[in-house]
Design a protein that fits this description.
By secondary structure, this protein is of the alpha/beta class. The protein is 38% helix and 23% strand. It contains 10 helices and 11 strands. Strands 2-1-3-10-4-11 form a 6-stranded mixed beta sheet. Helix 1 (16-23) crosses helix 6 (186-201).
């Protein structure tokens, strides 16, 4: 390829270790790094506006061909902390669930868990910006990322979707992975993988300059987010994609 590789990523707290490695690696000179929220990065990959993106895995059924790049992802092996269903009432009393417009994977995961794990059937509602004030009474919401970590200090009922998936299936979960629609050049792919690895190895250094008023970031990076795209996560991903087929949700993702 005679131009720079277009790379899309998210600037949430959970992606900062990966971005830390990429931005400090020689690979940065080979890429144009573009930052947006997850659903928008997904749209840009589907529109061929980027070459590889750290995208929600729920878009995979919409791609004719896809490649999972690097040995790393945004995942969890139990409670993830930053992907939750927030409510003022217990889950059996929830009548409506607001779906975070920034998310694709997490909102579909919530639909699956509500039906199969919690066995409830609330109404679902799409959202746009500034919907947090609508979390009230029997109206709950799926929130992801930094806003979810803040909401943990507000909502009395918190249902962690990573934890629920683990209890339901026994598998880890993959929220996002480095995905491309074409196979990446091998030397670039190897260098990009090393940049991700370097960032994860630099988490202690990253933490010296990173602070959060609403969550212990050392705990977040070491106990909640799990970055290795291992076999357990791949099996969990396969099962999740099978549920998407069952629910015929892939058509809804493009609406």
């Amino acid at each position: 390829m005679d131009r720079k590789i277009r790379v899309g990523a998210v600037n949430y707290l959970n992606t900062k270790p990966l971005l830390y490695g990429i931005e400090r690696s020689p690979i940065i000179n080979q890429i144009n790094l573009e930052i947006d929220y997850p659903a928008r990065i997904a749209e840009r990959l589907l529109l061929d506006e980027i070459d590889v993106g750290l995208v929600p895995v729920a878009i995979l059924p919409l791609m004719k061909d896809y490649y999972l790049n690097t040995d790393y992802c945004i995942g969890c092996d139990g409670a993830v902390a930053s992907v939750c269903l927030f409510s003022d009432v217990p889950i059996e009393q929830i009548q409506k669930v607001l779906l975070d417009y920034q998310s694709k994977t997490s909102v579909q995961l919530a639909r699956i868990l509500l039906k199969h794990y919690w066995k409830v059937a609330p109404e679902f509602a799409e959202t746009s910006q500034d919907f947090l004030s609508q979390i009230s009474g029997s109206t709950a919401a799926v929130l992801i990322g930094d806003r979810a970590l803040r909401q943990r200090h507000i909502s009395p009922y918190i249902y962690d979707l990573g934890e629920a998936w683990k209890r339901f299936t026994g598998f880890s979960f993959v929220f996002a992975a480095w995905v491309s629609s074409r196979e990446l050049d091998e030397p670039f792919a190897e260098a990009f993988n090393r940049a991700n690895q370097s960032g994860l190895e630099s988490i202690p250094l990253l933490l010296t300059g990173l602070h959060s008023d609403f969550f212990d970031l050392r705990q977040y990076y070491t106990q909640h987010i799990s970055y290795n795209l291992d076999e357990n996560k791949r099996k969990g991903l396969e099962l999740f994609l099978n549920y998407l087929k069952e629910f015929s949700l892939s058509s809804q993702l493009s609406n």
